[in-house]
Fold:
Amino acid sequence: MAPSPAAPATVGYNCTPSHHLPYAEQRQMEPAGAAVTTQTFSPQPPTNTPYTTTPPDSHFRIARGSKRMDRCWYAEGATLGDNAEGDNDVRASNTGKHMFKGVTDSVTDSHTNRSRRHRQYWVHPILQAHDHAGVFNNLYHDLQRYEEKFQAFCRLSVAQFDNLLQIIAVDLIFQDTQMRKAISAEERLLITFRFLATGESYASLHFQFRVGVTTISGIVRCTCVVIWQKLQPRVMPSPTEETWRQVAAGFQTVANFPHCLGAVDGKHVRVQQPPHSGSRYYNYKIFFSVVLMAVADANCKFVAIDVGAYGSTGDSRVLQTSQIGLQILRAGDTLPEAEPLPGSTDPVPFVMISDEAFPLLQNLLRPYPRRELDTRKRIFDFRLSRARRVVECTFGIMSSQWCVLGTTIKLDVRTVDNIIKACCVLHNYARPERTDEIIENQQANLDNVVNWDFQSPSNLGVAIRDHYVDYFMSPEGAVPWQYACVGDE
Structure:
């Protein structure tokens, strides 16, 4: 009976399998004098080299690529090089031992199998039931009979929905084909409204409406663009001098603040971190966002907006580089000429109001810092903050109606910009024409509504603000309740 072969020796190696050790320790375990150079190999092993996956007398190292993972085993004393033809080759060292190489393409093979996998269904049975099942074919027509339930579902009344459908339907009608029937414009609008009103994922809407996830993604993206293009000229046109005068009249009536062209503020809309963006979208509130910069009137409607600034950018910088700052505050072509305040004789320019995150300019007022405030300055700060709160109310009303703005939007930032713009014009479209909800002698907590960060003001802005201070203390500009609101009877 022939003797059993002796177990192969493991010269110079620890008994622990090398692939269980850290890479630094694997390097220390390599035999002295062995020259090992990592190179790229062809998928096929040398014809005269044994091809194994568990070489007994070898040490291996894992080489990772972008789309595959190869395991390469190097025998003791082996040296790697290139042959004359330029192909990768394995040359044995003086010891005469060969190098064993094994390649594991599990990642690549798995990817190939997935790409070649045949579809089990051309149209999934869940989606085949679209014509007689789902929200649109069952619930939608029942909701139309109940105005309150329809508005809770779509955030618009039945009349507003039908009117909007007539405006944008021509851009949402697609042609039927022999393969499948196109989704109607009415259902496209309903899917988009349900996404904006709830912030639900595409996968959730997929089961509700019996429509594919990819199809819903295209519907939301396309419909939001169409809504902005069609409604913006109607509900948020480019402001003219007449528009600014109407806004100023509203602030004079509602907030007792004359010559006010609107309240300016920014809102951070939470998004998922875009790829390769670093910290550009990371804001001081410790989440990723894009900035909505807006000017609101006394009726809690948007007069002008600018969307898409990085979340890491401050409000002051966003305003200066936005279209609001460039075309309105700096150019001032459409702003009314300076006029005297009611009951006075000195002309004063029309202004916008903001918190202290913004600079003090000729056409932009902000409150005084909290330190060393006398009664005159406290009254001015109270009346400015009382009028400025309408923009915060506008953001709050819009976010409560279109709840997608209160979630983390996990979409491309360009799609996020279109969603924000669609929500803004839909807010103006659905907002009723009334101002009786706004500020009836409400007392403001100045510590909460004012951001007290300091910025150096301009000399002209300081002079205009001082003029407002004097006016609010004069018989022509004072109101009876202002002293009680600041605690000075």
The two ends are 117 Å apart (CA to CA). Residues 375-401 form the longest helix (27 residues). The chain has 18 helices and eleven strands.
